């Protein structure tokens, strides 16, 4: 069930960019953003069961680090990202930023959003078509009462986002721009407040393949030049390979595998991660087709939450490893928020000691 990517293969994919990222912050440094035991539950409609969209997540993002949060639609990754910005209030757990708990008063959230900004996936929907580029980028400055020179700040943000000379774009409207230029305006609107953290939700999903690499290269350059941290939410493991230092794979409200991007994407341990990787064009072998119903946060099965779709259990490999009963009945603990390699899988944990003894 192992799935590996050939050396250098992802870089040959459309939109791939070279890894120009600097070393991340030392492991001993405290994280910029820390999440512990986070839960977000939405009440069900008309007597239906509540939806546990985020069901226990620990996650750290260090200064200057890019973390990719990956998973299929419905796994809870967008809800998690929005909760990190205070857009969705958690029903349990805590979010800590720069050592201080996140407050949820209007004043506290306003101050926090100067330091943590959201980049949405659809620039056509997130940009006001009646506003000029200048007004779109300047909006954050006006909301937060910027005391400096507004024109200079807007020009610097547009220039950093790759729109040069910036004055040429001041009086343009979104419909006059290409898709890549619109996404750069969205990024400039986030940069104008000089944040420390960007949360990018599928930042290149709506762009042509020829433009994707440019935007990914821009995010890497911003990390290099400004020391920005970023959480990149995506369903695309190829994107994660190209941009991230670490990857966290999410399934049904929880992170099921995490670690350095090279380790997770070249030697995945969780069957879900292996299935996600198997559909990449560069992956060897046939794609793994998951059977069963897609994840439903209002019905979380007992035991391992992936076991009803797990090909390892269906093939009998879990029985041979002696963990089939555990897969069906024993819930796995929440993975810790550090940067070490971790997996929430009874079979993967049983297989590792065997491999170590064989080595």
From TrEMBL:
One of its GO terms (biological process) is peptide transport. PROSITE patterns: ABC_TRANSPORTER_1, ABC_TRANSPORTER_2. Residues 1-31 are annotated as: Disordered. One of its GO terms (cellular component) is plasma membrane. InterPro entries: AAA+_ATPase, ABC_transp_ATP-bind, ABC_transporter-like_ATP-bd, ABC_transporter-like_CS, Oligopep_ABC_C, P-loop_NTPase. It comes from the Bacteria. Gene3D superfamilies: P-loop containing nucleotide triphosphate hydrolases. GO terms for molecular function: ATP binding; ATP hydrolysis activity; transmembrane transporter activity. Keywords: ATP-binding, Nucleotide-binding, Transport. Residues 35-277 form the ABC transporter domain. Belongs to the ABC transporter superfamily. This is Peptide transport ATP-binding protein. It comes from Streptomyces coelicolor (strain ATCC BAA-471 / A3(2) / M145). The lineage of its organism: Bacteria, Bacillati, Actinomycetota, Actinomycetes, Kitasatosporales.
